[in-house]
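Entry for the shared binder. Reason: the reviewer on the internal report wants the predicted structure included alongside the sequence.
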Amino acid sequence: MTNLLIRLFVPRAERASEQTIRLRYGQLAGIVGIAANVLLCLVKLLAGIVTHSISVMADAVNNLTDALSSVISLISFHLSGKEPDKEHPFGYGRTEYIAGLFVSMLIIFVGFQFIKSSADRILHPSAVLFSWSSILLLVVSMLVKLWLGLFNRRIGKAIDSPVLMAAMQDSLNDVITTGVVILGMIASRFTTLPIDGYVGIVVAAFILYAGYGLAKDALSPLIGEKADPELVQEIQELVTSYDSILGVHDLIAHNYGAGRWFASVHAEVPSDGDMIAIHETIDAIEQQALKSLHVFLVIHMDPIEINNERVQTVRCQTEQVLHDIDPSLSMHDFRMVDGEHQINLIFDVVVDRDFVPEELRTRIRTELHAIDPRFNPVIVFDHTM
């Protein structure tokens, strides 16, 4: 079914990274989500009315919020596909995250409302009418939701969409909540306890948990989360694959929506190399990053000495000191200002955020003084991405 829908509505589906194709995928997911969830809402409302079950009603309204989520997702895909303009030079890609945040707030509101309704049902019980036909309708809705979750997962992975991956998780949560509702309806046949109210609270708790997860996933990229380690490695490998690049550091990546990464990195180059030729190489790397990784990359050149034996010897000594302190430590931008009574060693040290900078600075200074009392380390600490 999924393959058929993609073939019918997404031409050139294999080019998912292209903005127009991505938009078609998003439109398909949104329309299917709206249709499926509205249908499920109507089915569950009917079952809830027949059985007088607050938990079934809660599950029905949960599907209605899912349909609204799909509407918002559909709108966000249209907005995120807009071209950059004067007011928003980096595009509108982050509207997907804003849409996800809005949906999560809506889901949390619905969850609290049903906790209130379910508590009222516990305090003021009313009979739940058991119906095998209603059970059958709910089982069918579970199967539809399971398919919808797998459908959103397929498309969400194809176009790297956080909104659709969240929709996938929400659909799988709905399978669980509907299953709980069915168990509650069956259990109500064998007890006079207000099982329906308790099940309603369980369903509402699932709704709240789903809303919290969606809010967390939407807020993280808006606040500014660290770059995907796999993307960082790909950028580093691309830059260092060119012969004139000796190493890279200070890689910073910013996300402006799915598939829209902007990054900058410092590339170490030989100080005695042909700067015009190296600059041409830098331009080629930036173009290759955009073409193969879809990353707008800006590279800063850091010339370093590689043919001065004394500088290289002291550099190796300094690297050994860092390794002896902790193998995870690394350095870059090493320079040496020689003097008769004092030798300034200027370099950056890349550390994890767990390190206490001043304690580490003192330890490095002590170890370097043991090699040569004239060594005066001037250290800048960088944190790992």
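Summary line for the report: The first helix runs from residue 2 to 9.
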